[in-house]
């Protein structure tokens, strides 16, 4: 506001100097009369930002008065600022109308001057002068306005891009936290479930001999050591910077990878915990993609852990290699009394997520019979594709698959 006031004062002072210097047409009126329209145009400068339309109105009135009593060069020059302010700060429709109107006035002024003076060389001179006074300020304002509007659009676009980047960052953090939670759950649950069941059995039985107790404690110690080792492994992987393995993690100088072909280790662990278990392979075992290997291994691991925590003997695992897919089926018997081990339901969610990440399907629920047992039980069935996905599907799943493959753990990893 202060700059506007000083601008108006400066314009008025320069206009007065021009009037005093004779920059006007003599009409036989006192010089102070010419100051009146000059003051009106300068009043328009004062309100050029807050009321650009009023500024234009004051300028038009002042130029009309000045044309009657003068005209004077100072008033005309200040009027150009009234035009400029109206085109720059006023409505867009007004700016376009001013450009068209001033162009018509410039042409009409040149033609009128030539007709009135009967000299057809005069229109070019008058027309150019009128264009300089009328059209040039409006055109300059329109150019600046366009640049300002474009800058505003770019600023809004930059803000939108920043918001989208922030949303992507939050989504990435949420996805990473979900993946870490899934991996930690699958890594720890198996070992600790076995420890809990074996220790509960040892505490609840008073008739166990020293050899049996020692065997149970040895199994508890083995699960504890393996769980701690795998926990250290995943902590080490999380601390690594820029770790982007493609098919496994480099541990001890070699790349290791969890495979469906090694699920017998998981069955043996369940048997060591006190349950009867069996497993078999149907079809011809073959190499499957790394992501499917990891997903299948973890699904079997979690299903066996759930059987250990909530089910009864026996537990049966069937790995079926079919055309274009591998089908995993884990069945366990259930009894009337449920085990007291707590569960948060994250296991089923994690298994379903793992199957979906590789484009497969997952089902879990009561089953009337198992592969060899004719009795009620609980069954988990996961169908995982083993063929390469199409370009469109691969593009959509590549980021998720790379995240899954990115956390490969040593052989024998637990839940």
From TrEMBL:
The record's InterPro entries line, in alphabetical order, gives: HATPase_C_sf (IPR036890), Sensor_HK_TwoCompSys (IPR050482), Sig_transdc_His_kin_sub3_dim/P (IPR011712)
Instruction: Give the keywords, sorted.
Output: ATP-binding, Kinase, Membrane, Nucleotide-binding, Phosphoprotein, Transferase, Transmembrane, Transmembrane helix, Two-component regulatory system
Give the E.C. number(s). Answer: 2.7.13.3
* CDD domains recorded: HATPase_UhpB-NarQ-NarX-like (cd16917)
Reaction(s) this enzyme catalyzes, per UniProt: ATP + protein L-histidine = ADP + protein N-phospho-L-histidine
Domain Signal transduction histidine kinase subgroup 3 dimerisation and phosphoacceptor: from-to ranges: 176-242
Q: Where are the transmembrane segments?
A: 32-48, 98-118, 124-144
Please list the GO terms describing molecular function. Answer: ATP binding; phosphorelay sensor kinase activity; protein dimerization activity
Q: What class of enzyme is it?
A: transferase
Q: Which domain of life is it from?
A: Bacteria
Q: What is one term from the GO cellular component aspect held by the record?
A: membrane
Its recorded name reads: histidine kinase
């Amino acid at each position: 506001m202060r700059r506007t006031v000083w601008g108006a004062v400066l314009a008025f002072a320069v206009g007065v100097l021009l009037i005093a210097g004779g920059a006007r047409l003599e009409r036989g009126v006192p010089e102070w009369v010419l100051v009146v329209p000059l003051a009106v145009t300068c009043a328009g400068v004062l309100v050029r930002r807050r009321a650009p339309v009023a500024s234009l109105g004051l300028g038009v009135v002042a130029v009309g008065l000045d044309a009657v009593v003068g005209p004077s060069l100072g008033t005309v020059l200040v009027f150009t600022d009234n035009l400029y302010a109206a085109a720059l700060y006023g409505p867009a429709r007004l700016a376009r109308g001013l450009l068209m109107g001033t162009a018509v006035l410039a042409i009409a002024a040149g033609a009128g001057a030539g007709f009135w003076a009967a000299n057809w060389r005069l229109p070019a001179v008058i027309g150019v002068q009128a264009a300089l006074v009328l059209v040039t300020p409006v055109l300059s304002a329109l150019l600046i306005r366009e640049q300002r509007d474009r800058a505003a659009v770019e600023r809004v676009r930059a803000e939108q891009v920043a918001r989208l980047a922030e949303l992507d960052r939050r989504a990435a953090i949420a996805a990473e936290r979900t993946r870490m939670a899934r991996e930690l759950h699958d890594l720890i649950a198996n070992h600790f479930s076995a420890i809990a069941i074996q220790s509960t059995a040892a505490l609840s039985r008073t008739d166990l001999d020293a050899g049996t107790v020692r065997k149970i404690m040895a199994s508890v110690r083995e699960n504890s050591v393996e769980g701690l080792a795998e926990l250290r492994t995943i902590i080490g992987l999380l601390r690594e910077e820029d770790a982007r393995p493609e098919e496994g993690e480099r541990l001890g100088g070699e790349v290791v990878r969890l495979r469906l072909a090694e699920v017998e280790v998981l069955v043996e662990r369940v048997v060591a915990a006190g349950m009867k278990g069996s497993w078999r392979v149907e079809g011809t075992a073959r190499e499957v993609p790394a992501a499917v290997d990891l997903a299948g291994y973890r699904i079997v691991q979690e299903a066996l852990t759930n059987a250990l925590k909530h089910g009864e003997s026996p537990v049966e695992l069937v790995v079926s290699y079919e055309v274009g897919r591998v089908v995993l089926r884990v069945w366990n018997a259930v009894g009337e009394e449920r085990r007291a081990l707590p569960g948060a339901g994250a296991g089923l969610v994690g298994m379903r997520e793992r199957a979906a990440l590789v484009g497969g399907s997952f089902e879990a629920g009561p089953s009337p019979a198992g592969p060899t047992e004719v009795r009620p039980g609980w069954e988990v069935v996961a169908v995982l594709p083993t063929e390469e996905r199409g370009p469109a599907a691969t593009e959509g799943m590549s980021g998720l698959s790379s995240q899954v493959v990115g956390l490969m753990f040593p052989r024998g990893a637990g839940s």
